[in-house]
């Protein structure tokens, strides 16, 4: 069967719809068919041909021209908010924190949108016709104030006011007037322990219940009290040199440990070790998990030990004595790792900082009157300040970097210091005798207690710090009538007895 050969002059065709075939001009491409292709040199020499404007050009890409549109701000304008939502307490608080309490109230979203629409963070084309933001000048002014401009100074926090009238009064007679004893402590379960003569009394701050824990008898006396960290057990140092441990929930003695030759005037708990200091110049380490009375003895002082304090990580023990020395010990050696001798009087007041590791504060007696700050890593003195009076106690505030000190001769004041500037936050005066004892409470009530003779007065010194301060039994009244009485000038209805 014969097959007809295709004609030599047949043109190639594309499979396209008939409606588009008329609009397409297809030129044959080949070596022998059609007109010859011009040479490259000829094509470069010929001027470019401009298509006729009347001739219609077709394309398979359709890109709209949006040069007059502003799509950068499309859908970026906030939706209108009601004035009630924009003026919520949270919005006012946030505005005050960011721009200060005197910042002007911003305009509503509707007016702000009509005046100047918001712009996106990532803009790759500058829109010169867009209006500027109304917050630009405010931000620049805020930056100038931050940089130190004197036109609009930043607001300052007003100084804290410390009330000088007592909040609560507790009677505590028979309190010994002895600088070297430690007769008050506050437990982590919010129970106050006070040693009065031969007895120990417990006062619950939650329900104001008073409990008599023990009576040591006529031949003995209470010289020191100190709670364990969990607040369940109370250690008592006696005049005969013993150390007793009592279960406060059952009012039962569970341990009696000897070892000292004379009175035990100071105690300090770590996690499982109870340290005791005595007039016999020794420090005993008692481990309540073993049957022995003590496991080690530290002998470094040349006079009575009157101050003991464990660091918060239980690695170091600081001790102060009537020999004017401050010693720092650890568990690995029975010799002090630091012997600090800059004080010129007895060192009873000792406090480790809860805000900085290795920072130790100590206070000297009447002949010294100074509070010194030590770096126990190298033994250097960081700061020293003369208070003008005998330093009886020191206590760090747990929530702010402040220090509370109580004093004896000759001004008998209570002071709150800002560390490290050591500026005075508050000073309470008017005491006729020494403010001998101090303890901090864990419940964050922001109150302080002080005792004049037979009265314990609660004062608010620092937010979230509750302390108890007790003074001498010889003080019968304060210099000011407001100091010696309740908020109305007389004893308040909160008066209670500790016996």
Automatic annotation (TrEMBL):
Assigned protein family: Belongs to the WD repeat CDC20/Fizzy family.
Record keyword S-adenosyl-L-methionine present: no
Pfam families: WD40_CDC20-Fz (PF24807)
Keywords per UniProt: Cell cycle, Cell division, Mitosis, Repeat, WD repeat
Ranges of Low complexity composition bias in the record: 101-119, 130-139
Residue windows of the WD repeats: 298-339, 340-384
Gene designation per UniProt: LOC100193750
Basic residues biased stretches: 158-167
GO BP: any one term: anaphase-promoting complex-dependent catabolic process
Domain named CDC20/Fizzy WD40: residues: 170-448
Cellular component terms per the entry's GO annotation: anaphase-promoting complex
Protein's UniProt name: CDC20/Fizzy WD40 domain-containing protein
Cited InterPro entries: Cdc20/Fizzy, WD40/YVTN_repeat-like_dom_sf, WD40_CDC20-Fz, WD40_repeat_dom_sf, WD40_rpt
UniProt GO MF annotations: anaphase-promoting complex binding; ubiquitin ligase activator activity
Region spans: Disordered: 1-61, 98-167, 478-499
